Amino acid sequence: MNENDQNVKSTISTTSYEPFMLGDKQVGEVHWLTQTNSNGQPTYSGLWRCEPLTFEYEFPGDEIFHVLQGSLQIAISDGNVVQVQQGDIVAFKKGLKSVWTIHSPFKKFFVISNC
What we know:
By secondary structure, the chain is mainly beta. About 10% of the residues are buried. It has strands spanning about 20, 25-35, 45-50, 55-60, 60-70, 70-75, 80-85, 90, 95-100, 105-115.
């Protein structure tokens, strides 16, 4: 993607994903649509997919995502548990610590800002 482009179109194929790493552990795969906004600030969007897995995740920015496939349980450090499934749209604040348990093959469209 050219940073001077005003519009972005992406076509997803099975080869257009790359490993998504948390430290030295791979947790699924990501297809990036954007990694900066028009002001050059980090704003990430794309598709993420993962097979059943449990891992710790600290939200690096404010994140909104739409579940396209599968189901997921997010245990928040404050004791709340959020169950999401296909069709749900959820939002989480930057810095929130959580444990994700993916129950079935999972795919989401996400936007992360305020990194």
